[in-house]
Specification:
Layout: H1 2-7, H2 10-19, H3 26-59, H4 64-67, H5 70-96, H6 113-118, H7 124-158, H8 163-196, H9 200-211
Helix pairs in contact: 3-5, 3-7, 3-8, 5-7, 7-8, 8-9
């Protein structure tokens, strides 16, 4: 998911820089946005599932193997794929309803969903509804689940008496937590921030963080 998510923007960015081109067709823009959203959403959903996995491994180690069985893993993966496809197609359906644009320039190195929506002359109600609804569902709820998991994890780690046990528990979560902060922090801030007051420079820096870094 990570590789596909990054591949939806970086190769095109490299080609555009080398060819000194800033042009993309509307169909190409929608295709890029669709792939970006699908794998970006899948990435976020999988990070949430991984937080649940860490929660079970640290807080309920004796029941971990029983709960996280192959059947549940496959089910969670399918749920992630379904939500990702739904999110991607919802944005595409809204974008396909656009009949005119106030401008044809996106201040970013890829077709950013909320920026593309802001260029439309169409009614802002549907655009804002989709932006904030999807932002809330795919941002607030996963982040809430991750925060809840880590609150329980920290509580369990503090109860461990040995320092080596604490270190081992923390080391299993550090890489995941750093990716969560980098990915969710910049992505949600950029996605919702561009719908309110957008700064091109800050937006591109945030985009580089969650798509490339």
């Amino acid at each position: 998911a990570d590789i596909c998510f990054t591949s939806s923007t970086v190769p095109r960015m490299i080609v555009d820089i080398s060819a000194h081109s800033r042009v993309i067709s509307f169909v190409g823009c929608l295709s890029q946005m669709s792939v970006l959203l699908m794998f970006g959403c899948m990435d976020g959903m999988l990070l949430t599932v991984m937080a649940y996995d860490r929660f079970l491994a640290i807080c309920h180690p004796l029941n971990y193997v029983v709960i996280m069985n192959p059947r549940l893993c496959v089910f969670l993966l399918l749920v992630c794929v379904f939500i990702s496809l739904l999110d991607s197609q919802l944005h595409n359906l809204v974008a396909l309803q656009f009949t005119c644009f106030r401008d044809v320039e996106i201040a970013n190195f890829f077709c950013h969903p909320s920026q593309l929506f802001s260029l439309s002359c169409s009614d802002t109600l549907i655009k804002n509804l989709v932006t904030y609804l999807v932002g809330a569902i795919l941002g607030f709820f996963p982040i809430s689940a991750i925060v809840f998991s880590y609150c329980k994890i920290v509580s369990s780690i503090l109860k461990i008496s040995s320092s080596s046990g604490r270190y081992k528990a923390c080391s299993t979560c550090s890489s995941h937590l750093s990716v969560v902060c980098l990915f969710y922090g910049t992505a949600i801030g950029e996605y919702l921030g561009s719908a309110v007051s957008y700064s091109p420079r800050k937006g591109m820096v945030a985009s580089l963080m969650y798509t490339v870094v």
